[in-house]
Amino acid sequence: MNTLKIGLIGTGFMGKAHALAYQAAGNVFEDISRPVLHKIADIDGERARLFQRQFGFASYTQDWQEVVNNPEIDIVSITTPTLLHREMALAAIAAGKHVHCEKPLSPTASEAWEIVQAAEKAGVRTQSGFNYLKNPLLKYARDFIASGELGEIYAFNGIHAEDFMSDPLSPYSWRCDPAGGTGALADVGSHIISISRFLLGPLTSIFAQLDTVVKQRPAYPGASELKEINVDDVARMIVTFERGCSGTIQANWLATGRKMQLEFEISGSKGALSFTQERMNELLYYKAGDDSRSNGFRLIETGPQHPPYGEFCVAQGHHLGFNDIKTIEMAEFIRAIDRGEPSSPDFREAWEIQKIIDIAVRSHRERQWQIIS
Amino acid sequence: MNTLKIGLIGTGFMGKAHALAYQAAGNVFEDISRPVLHKIADIDGERARLFQRQFGFASYTQDWQEVVNNPEIDIVSITTPTLLHREMALAAIAAGKHVHCEKPLSPTASEAWEIVQAAEKAGVRTQSGFNYLKNPLLKYARDFIASGELGEIYAFNGIHAEDFMSDPLSPYSWRCDPAGGTGALADVGSHIISISRFLLGPLTSIFAQLDTVVKQRPAYPGASELKEINVDDVARMIVTFERGCSGTIQANWLATGRKMQLEFEISGSKGALSFTQERMNELLYYKAGDDSRSNGFRLIETGPQHPPYGEFCVAQGHHLGFNDIKTIEMAEFIRAIDRGEPSSPDFREAWEIQKIIDIAVRSHRERQWQIIS
Amino acid sequence: MNTLKIGLIGTGFMGKAHALAYQAAGNVFEDISRPVLHKIADIDGERARLFQRQFGFASYTQDWQEVVNNPEIDIVSITTPTLLHREMALAAIAAGKHVHCEKPLSPTASEAWEIVQAAEKAGVRTQSGFNYLKNPLLKYARDFIASGELGEIYAFNGIHAEDFMSDPLSPYSWRCDPAGGTGALADVGSHIISISRFLLGPLTSIFAQLDTVVKQRPAYPGASELKEINVDDVARMIVTFERGCSGTIQANWLATGRKMQLEFEISGSKGALSFTQERMNELLYYKAGDDSRSNGFRLIETGPQHPPYGEFCVAQGHHLGFNDIKTIEMAEFIRAIDRGEPSSPDFREAWEIQKIIDIAVRSHRERQWQIIS
Amino acid sequence: MNTLKIGLIGTGFMGKAHALAYQAAGNVFEDISRPVLHKIADIDGERARLFQRQFGFASYTQDWQEVVNNPEIDIVSITTPTLLHREMALAAIAAGKHVHCEKPLSPTASEAWEIVQAAEKAGVRTQSGFNYLKNPLLKYARDFIASGELGEIYAFNGIHAEDFMSDPLSPYSWRCDPAGGTGALADVGSHIISISRFLLGPLTSIFAQLDTVVKQRPAYPGASELKEINVDDVARMIVTFERGCSGTIQANWLATGRKMQLEFEISGSKGALSFTQERMNELLYYKAGDDSRSNGFRLIETGPQHPPYGEFCVAQGHHLGFNDIKTIEMAEFIRAIDRGEPSSPDFREAWEIQKIIDIAVRSHRERQWQIIS
Ligand SMILES: NC(=O)C1=CN([C@@H]2O[C@H](COP(=O)(O)OP(=O)(O)OC[C@H]3O[C@@H](n4cnc5c(N)ncnc54)[C@H](O)[C@@H]3O)[C@@H](O)[C@H]2O)C=CC1
Ligand SMILES: NC(=O)C1=CN([C@@H]2O[C@H](COP(=O)(O)OP(=O)(O)OC[C@H]3O[C@@H](n4cnc5c(N)ncnc54)[C@H](O)[C@@H]3O)[C@@H](O)[C@H]2O)C=CC1
Ligand SMILES: NC(=O)C1=CN([C@@H]2O[C@H](COP(=O)(O)OP(=O)(O)OC[C@H]3O[C@@H](n4cnc5c(N)ncnc54)[C@H](O)[C@@H]3O)[C@@H](O)[C@H]2O)C=CC1
Ligand SMILES: NC(=O)C1=CN([C@@H]2O[C@H](COP(=O)(O)OP(=O)(O)OC[C@H]3O[C@@H](n4cnc5c(N)ncnc54)[C@H](O)[C@@H]3O)[C@@H](O)[C@H]2O)C=CC1
């Protein structure tokens, strides 16, 4: 069996998710090269050391450059704060690595574009961490819509709302640093933007309002010193799609009580789909025109009939979890590398998403509709 | 327009429900005689007086005999504690009245049978207050099953669970007096029994266990004196139906947190139905054999396509409430009287339900399956 | 007991709802004057005649002027297409009647203002048909927010979406005539606007986009001839509130599969509330700061603890329906008349709502934020 | 890092689940010996070969004896049809291996007892595959109940219902062979029995009814030849617990539309818990006595506050899936081996569960309550 050596940068929330997902991908999916965890880097050397031990990396380092420059490594996975993505991604690309970089790709579209161009010129595969697209039900939804089962699309409502910054005492973190991009919009909004494009295609114009409701936060966990917040914690957009319909997209860090309200509803002339990541193994489908006495939204449960669920479990009703969709993401990236085929969502797609975020910011500042060129 | 004069006995929970329902029935339904509230009786004269005023009865009395013997009255509605039903119903029948009596008809099947015989001999119309059968969705469910849409019926699970006696400090009341029949089984269990028969037909055998979990209660609201409880607060039955399938039926007064868990699920070879009175305007339907990728339980919402919803509202999605189904009950009773047709569920049906309760008690005592003859 | 004589104009969807609600109000609520259905008017004389018979009006007419000018009548209820409200309301006010007029009050805010001024000058009571505010759970939500239980309000999301125009073959009707005001925005959007104000107070600015997705419809039911549609079928707004928070408000006629998605979520620093009219007897409440292991949204079910539910039923878990909240509306109007106290929502409130709609239209046309003055 | 060598028998549904879970356990959990997939056996040699390749076992075999007798192997995992468990488990124990055996442990309690005795004499660790107990929410529920948060327990309702045999054309399989034990009762019923014991402790008596609704099935997939079915496809039990409460337990293979209705509700004097594996990341909790206006069932979502969720993901709202709970199962087994501590649920617990099944069969045959000794 072929193997691919992985270099991972970052040992935080996503660092762990990547390490687990690469390992699982090689186990769950038979048709792909087996990823081997080779080197882990974290600026916090002790974290890197522990991480190496836990996940069985061959070695660890405090210096991420050692990862991107290691000649044995095939894939570099970047899971550091967004502000750092650009430098690391460019270096990895320059070293000829295939690069997975967490979302959002970078603080601005122009930086993202720089990375895209470097990657495309270098001919390396790229992957952007919009993991929610990997849910078998979302793939099914996309194909369902594409095949015309919903008829003409009338409207889209999308939101990604969580409450992890709802408490005004939730402290400042790198996510609050405007140098790293917008706040809720980049952090969670990018996910629902990616879904809107995945299901319905390109957006053409945006009107946005960005709020910063909680204006000060403790400078660090438990601090009494307060730091001013200059990124949005709630973002609202009205958008239009190239295919002709309109919709709303929202991002929210202050949605008290909500842990994962990544939700959409799509209405069309022949039917509708409704989904929330809060119940990620369920998709609601309404088929217009059935006998009205016995018609209503159907609660579809994921199963082997929604590939690649069957790789995880042969029977319907046995839920996939978040780590499983991250596993699908890694498997698809490796498959694309194996076959020399396009990966998805790649850095170009991440740039498209970042453009929307940048344009939303401009719309908010200028208080005007903006065309997406 | 024809009118029918109503004599009502009892001004409690159900007394009010009847008064409102008779008035609404005449307004909502065009094709029936208009019920006119004529005389109200309650042993508590002050309550009767206030009730008369509020609902516009022509007169009131402390003596229920004045109701049953009033020559102007066409229909007598009995909403007193169960223990009192027999005497009142027999007197009303003897006076040639059509009689509506709340459920359960009486503490035992033999008393119920006495009433049935008297009514059938007298040729008066009778109605028993199993109101939940009047939900348009239940009528639809019954017809749906009867027409074979679920195929061969495999199994039934039914329960009526509430928590109104869950607190051990909820006091003793007439519902706890064994002279009035069983406890939870008669009080709420009779409803789910009525539904099981309505949807699936006669039962043939029963195994039952009756529990009295809370063994003492305050003798009256707020009392420190405790009174022993000798009726069941949880009842469980395994049952068989004449049509060949089996199932479970439960009654529960101690279902902490549940306000109206009157629920059933029916599985068949071609489909399934699931319902809970907690969401009385929704019926879940699963149709076997549809494309498995887009199949699942459908959430049907009541609408004009489920008669007689349309009499209340012309548009789907505008919920019916409890008082509306009580209104349908009264309208159907009056229509039966108008047309000289059978009413349903009549006293004979109430007797059938009471037989099941009696046999459940016997099964519990003898710890044996019992045949329903 | 005092009585109030009702003159009703219109025998359609709302005409029936009013007739039933007046009758029920007198029965359910003890403390108010008893409404008596006196005269019914409909331009379709045959409908008026049948309606009179069904609901027991003293008389009927084809000429609505006979209602407003009838000296015996105390209250005039207007349930005709919106375009006709102004003339009828002004005439009724001029005749010194208390006036209930269905929502929206009129096609434009300036017409609404004319009516408000006339009514206030005449000193008559007015009521506007925003019935959803009468749900006991919404009253509870309003008080809950006002008492600070949610802390500082962060955000509001509101929508009223139905699918009754989702099928492109759903025909043109008076609701599609721009002379009567906007489309979905006025028709259903006005409800969610009324809720946003009811719960959170005045709005200060709006950005709106109005869509007309289905551009042609059959000229009448079954017609092959098509008529152009010049009103919105989907409307989206970003709004700000005087209290400092922002939100979204949407209206939709094309929400395939949705029968009554009148929904909101309000997040605050101490908690959140979520509600949908699809489950009008349930309110979701999240209380921030509870032990995270056992915390989550609570499903509150309506009960007597949420007045005036107890007037309908003494026990929790017995649902109210749409007609019941219409009954509460009528009872409150009558009580206001009885006591000479302000009614709510009155015509002034309806004018406030209409202003928002007008300003939304302007925002859409000018593609700009608009201040609500 | 220590390693433990795994020998696996069986490459079907559970064989794959075990292989994935052992691999993931070593990655997710830092504190345990790393399991290494050493040898895979399947009577179908080609399956074994492919499985070896996919999951990276060191070798494969057609002969399971080679697994149990391989001196390098530490743990033997048995995932063959139930009928075969006994011989394999006894051989593995005899060879001094720690043994994981899928549920149910064996067709009868007496065989299970033989295995338990052998294992306890040999002093090896054992684990039984009742994976649903490994859900962090179930662990939380158990501790919650044990700490008295629900007060005195009133009642238990449990069911495990699926529809995978609902279609009469679903063929005969080893699950239908009475030599392997009961049908639905052993197959899915054993899970809900394990949960009832996990949460509430020992059962004391049972009354059971076992149904065989579908009496013939195709002899093999697609066969026209039919084979008689002699095991139950629906099983119903009324049970009592040592702690004093009663309840129901059901198993069902014919629950049309249900993919994983593994569900329970527990009511107590101070609160209630409700759970369904259909939404395995949610637990409903009702706390009695809170302000009734804002009280209701709370929807708890799994998070790091429910260990060991945090090993998989640092943030709440990111679902665990079925494979994750199987991973927890394996990690706990390995930890027990590492520490020389009891594992749970071990073979003795599996025997306790099997006793209940045997006694249920006896109760069904004798149509009598049976005491569990
Ligand atoms: N796909 C998804 O659903 C999610 C994606 N993300 C994205 O993943 C990225 C990382 O986020 P988290 O894992 O939540 O952050 P985190 O703060 O948990 O982890 C970041 C890690 O990067 C390390 N790091 C920082 N500077 C470094 C340097 N110069 N060299 C090496 N290591 C360095 C830190 O020590 C830390 O271990 C972000 O871009 C974020 O937007 C985060 C959460 C979910
Ligand atoms: N269909 C349904 O869903 C329900 C049916 N019921 C049934 O309705 C009946 C009454 O129950 P509730 O209304 O809840 O009881 P309640 O206790 O609220 O009211 C009983 C009324 O009967 C009066 N009463 C007692 N003795 C009397 C006498 N000798 N003469 C005249 N009046 C007398 C009492 O003063 C009281 O007003 C019972 O049979 C009960 O099972 C009760 C609740 C719901
Ligand atoms: N509160 C709510 O939830 C709802 C409010 N409405 C509002 O109620 C009003 C009426 O709507 P619907 O009842 O649905 O309309 P509809 O079309 O069902 O009924 C309108 C009635 O007015 C009559 N009418 C028309 N011109 C007349 C005239 N010159 N004189 C006398 N009668 C005349 C028609 O013959 C018809 O009976 C509208 O303003 C609408 O927005 C409608 C539905 C729900
Ligand atoms: N924990 C859980 O949730 C579940 C547990 N199970 C249990 O797992 C066990 C296996 O069930 P499944 O995996 O569904 O069965 P399966 O039929 O999918 O797989 C059984 C495997 O055993 C192999 N096998 C048969 N005889 C053999 C022999 N003599 N030597 C070596 N291999 C042999 C077969 O070739 C097949 O690969 C059963 O005891 C079942 O009750 C099954 C499904 C779910």
UniProtKB/TrEMBL annotation, chains A, B, C, D:
Instruction: Specify one Pfam family.
Output: GFO_IDH_MocA_C3
Residue ranges constituting the GFO/IDH/MocA-like oxidoreductase domain according to the UniProt record: 140-273
Asked if the Swiss-Prot or TrEMBL record annotates the protein with the keyword Cell wall biogenesis/degradation, the reply is: no
Gfo/Idh/MocA-like oxidoreductase N-terminal domain mapped to chain residues:
4-130
Cited InterPro entries: Gfo/Idh/MocA-like_OxRdtase_N (IPR000683), Gfo/Idh/MocA_oxidrdct_glycsds (IPR050463), GFO_IDH_MocA-like_dom (IPR055170), NAD(P)-bd_dom_sf (IPR036291)
Q: Which SUPFAM superfamilies match?
A: Glyceraldehyde-3-phosphate dehydrogenase-like, C-terminal domain (SSF55347), NAD(P)-binding Rossmann-fold domains (SSF51735)
- Write out the entry's keywords from A to Z: Oxidoreductase
Q: What is this protein called?
A: Dehydrogenase
Q: Which organism is it from?
A: Gluconobacter frateurii NRIC 0228
